[in-house]
Amino acid sequence: MDLIIVRNTERMARIGADLIQRQLATKPDSVLGLATGATPLNLYREMVARHRRGRLTLERAITFNLDEYLGLGPEHPASYASYMRRHLFGPMGLDPARAHLPNGTAAAPEAEAKCYEARLQAVGGIDLQLLGIGLNGHIGFNEPGSALDSRARVVCLSATTRAANQRYFPLDESTPTHAITLGIGTIMEARRLLLLASGSAKAAAVSDALEGPITPEVPASVVQRHPRVTVLIDAEAATALSPIMRRQAREPDAIAVS
Ligand SMILES: O=P(O)(O)OC[C@H]1O[C@](O)(CO)[C@@H](O)[C@@H]1O
What we know:
Elements: E1 2-6, H1 9-26, E2 31-34, H2 41-52, E3 62-65, E4 67-69, H3 80-92, E5 99-100, H4 109-122, E6 128-131, E7 153-156, H5 159-165, E8 178-181, H6 184-188, E9 192-197, H7 203-211, E10 229-234, H8 243-248
Parallel strand pairs: 1-10, 2-3, 2-6, 3-5, 6-9, 9-10
Antiparallel strand pairs: 4-8, 7-8
Helix pairs in contact: 1-2, 2-3
This protein binds 6-O-phosphono-beta-D-fructofuranose.
């Protein structure tokens, strides 16, 4: 595991964008696995800024998002399709045909999840998977208790996740109860993982994920098994890590992709 602890989220965004830029320089037609939520927002802003300066393009890339709420169409402002259009795809001028998300309003959601997985496998799987981590240790919408070899499927969201994401919904609308997510097994097949976390609220989840037992109760703990994982976190999210783990952290200014 390559652990990078940085001062703040701006620095996280710059290093994250460096890693994505290098991935695309090596393989311009990379399949990028993308995440939503608050965590990657600064990174997406940095990617857009680099795009405007002509340094970063997704022109030949293909993207697959981790998840989508069940019942929300792409025009719903809290859908992840809408989030991605607003924060990344629109500003970067990504051809919509290259950007994939599960269809949250599919008539047969389980079939849609299977089809989404099949579409991903058809392009050869994910080259670089970006991940955030939930307060309860989830990755994608794989909540605690998810099988470590799970595939794309319909999941029931936990009370913690629904409460944490309520802020994205109008007062009179509650967070959906279900979602379609890529599975933990699918995520683990990505050739490279980039896990981001920021803020003290994530400190316990980060320490459980990186130093605790690998268990379905902490879905993110599975990243310990991945051969090419970069964990990029800010100082606040690192506060619960053991001194031994912190000592393993790489000099933030000296990143190099192995
Ligand atoms: O970044 P946040 O908003 O704390 O969310 C954590 C994770 O939970 C999700 O919202 C659910 O997939 C992810 O998109 C995100 O990585």
